[in-house]
Amino acid sequence: MKAMQKSLMTAAVVAATALSGAAQAEGISDDKVKIGVLADMGGVYADICGPGCVTAVEMAVEDFGGSVLGKPIEVISADDQLKPDVGSAKVRQWIESEQVDTVAGLVSSAVVGAATKVLTDNKKIALISTAASNAFTTSSCSPYNVHWTYNVTAVANGTVKPMVQAGKKKWFFITADYAFGHALEKVATDVVEQNQGEVVGAVRAPLGTTDFSSYVLQAQASGADVVALANAGADTVNSLKTAAEFGLTQTADVAGLLVFTPNAQAMDPSTAGGMTLTTGFYWDYDDATRAWSARFKERHGAIPAMGHAGAYSMTMHYLKAVEAAGTDDSDAVMAKMKEMKPDDFFARNATLRADGRMVHDMYTVKIKNPDERRDGDDIFKVVDVLAGDQVYEPMLPECNFAKS
Amino acid sequence: MNDKKLYLALFILALAAPAVLYPVFLMKVLCFALFACAFNLLLGFAGLLSFGHAAFLGTGGYVTGYLMINAGLTPELGILAGTLAAGLLGAVYGKLAVRREGIYFAMVTLALAQLAFFFYLQAPFTGGEDGLQGVPRGELFGFIDLSNNLAMYYFVLAIFVFGFWLIRRTVHSPFGQVLKAIRENEPRAISLGYNVNDYKWLAFVISSALAGLAGSTKTLVFQLASLNDVHWHLSGEVVLMTLVGGMGTLLGPLVGAGAIVTIQNYLSGGELGNYIHIILGAIFVVCVLAFRSGIVGQFQKMLKQNF
């Protein structure tokens, strides 16, 4: 009986020590910092943030020196197959059985929504590079979300506002018929109306539509000054192509609200030339962006899209914060990330706000005409640099996690 | 008698499994296994190929998720509600579908399932492409905290065992015998005085309710109901699971679901992730060409020949 009591006591003491160790979380847990990259490896967004995002995160880890506070940094990756259930299950598994400290990448807003819920429940940081929705720092904000590259508000403000103010008052939307498209259309509509513009109509095209002719004809009949494409990826490419075939590009301006570098490369320059759009990064902006992009291209085989550069930049910032905090405990690292100013080739005049929104300079660019292009990578002409606080939405009071 | 020993052994194995394997993975297998078993009740025992079973899985999931988020139901009530909703939908869809046979039956179920898909895509409460996120797992009967993976696992296991028992009971009942008679020779069943459509309809309702049960459980496990649960891809996947495992055998769907989920899980992390659909397609073709009775069916044949 005595022996039994003694062993029970010992067990209790051991358990208590183990628990207190976990609670304090000083230093690096599990003797390594492990970053999981969740991205779309083979789907429609693979070019935007797929294997390229893994490369970018790996580059950041290598540039950081491969270790932090004397402990190795490990990168693992998985395909979310653009399915929220697959993505959230993967993240859960990473946290529960593979000691992952943070998840980077994070592409499709649907997957990210599910993944960030799991991450927040487990107090792990989400480093969101490519998701478009602004929900992660507004309606479903969390003290563990970091949203880096851009969001729908920024691209809508950046592209729509100057056009409306320049006198293009009548707008028509061709919208991808799902959550992302609706969100983009709504944000852009607000911007149009705030600037005394008018939305004369909108059509919803299912995701993956190949024949846009009926939608383009409706746009043409509306008499709008600007036809805005509230869609992404192949949908943007296809709708623009149809708009050109029907002569819409001659009678009205076509604005792509969300165009990534690989999509712009896929467009026919003779029809896309002159189109205005907003991006969080352009590889050919200055020497710093060119230097990084050249290294990225050497490894990845294509110039970086904004999500790639964002993934590098935020991984770097995370690792610096781990070093500064002296621990990989999420709360401490998050506090450091928000305290330190991100500053690199990607993040210019940048701050990471208390709600997790990284506010930085955005770029208004025009797609170059065929005769202006040196080669296939020479696609944008930067026409304006937009200060971050002009294009991102202000922080919501309920999302201010500064002092909790 | 042998059956009982086999089930007991499997049950003990299932009880011990979470010590070795990741519980969430096991729960996924069990949810899909229940789904495949429910589907197999129709295909294997009544000879009805439903190509829209994802609609019931998804309905169960969405209803459970919605009620648990917004009405604060406990898990057992949430699952019950999801199962009932799927059963009701099955009753309506079944009434329409069983009037046709063969390829027409499959097409009608597919069309009806697509209706459900577009409903869930557009309905505001489902969150569209984002799905219903953040479904709480809650506390079973008000005192068992299901956020613990092990507690959740044994709850899912209990649900699966119940579902499996119900299917086994159905198959071995006189009702099940009539279903098999209809599968083998429908005109003869009619001439014997059975109201064939009513039998088929009832089998359809049981099957869809159980598919809904699987969907409700899955939503609790992943805390998420998404469009993938109602997509026709999933209706196809369940056919694959059933055929690979062994159509018309009780354990076949369990084995098939285990095999397919394992393959998907294994491939999604590796280099071959991009080829997952091609690999599954190849498995399907090989399965249909080489061993049509599936893993369990083939195994039973070997047992019969050699012992």
Automatic annotation (TrEMBL), chain A:
Sequence ranges assigned to domain Leucine-binding protein in this UniProt record: 32-368
Keyword annotations of the record: Signal
Signal peptide bounds: 1-25
Cross-referenced InterPro entries: BCAA_transport (IPR051010), Leu-bd (IPR028081), Peripla_BP_I (IPR028082)
Keyword Signal: yes
Domain of life: Bacteria
SUPFAM superfamilies, A to Z: Periplasmic binding protein-like I (SSF53822)
Keyword RNA-binding assigned: no
Protein family per UniProt: Belongs to the leucine-binding protein family.
Protein name: Leucine-binding protein domain-containing protein
Taxonomic source organism: Marinobacterium nitratireducens
UniProtKB/TrEMBL annotation, chain B:
Entry's localization field: Cell inner membrane
Keywords: Cell membrane, Membrane, Transmembrane, Transmembrane helix
One Gene Ontology molecular-function label: branched-chain amino acid transmembrane transporter activity
Protein name as it appears in the record: Branched-chain amino acid ABC transporter permease
Main location: membrane
Lineage of origin: Bacteria, Pseudomonadati, Pseudomonadota, Gammaproteobacteria, Oceanospirillales
CDD domains: TM_PBP1_LivM_like (cd06581)
Pfam families membership: BPD_transp_2
Spans traversing the lipid bilayer: 6-25, 32-57, 77-96, 103-121, 150-167, 238-263, 275-295
Domain of life: Bacteria
Keyword DNA repair carried by entry: no
GO annotations of cellular component type: plasma membrane
Keyword Glycosyltransferase part of the UniProt annotation: no
Membrane topology: Multi-pass membrane protein
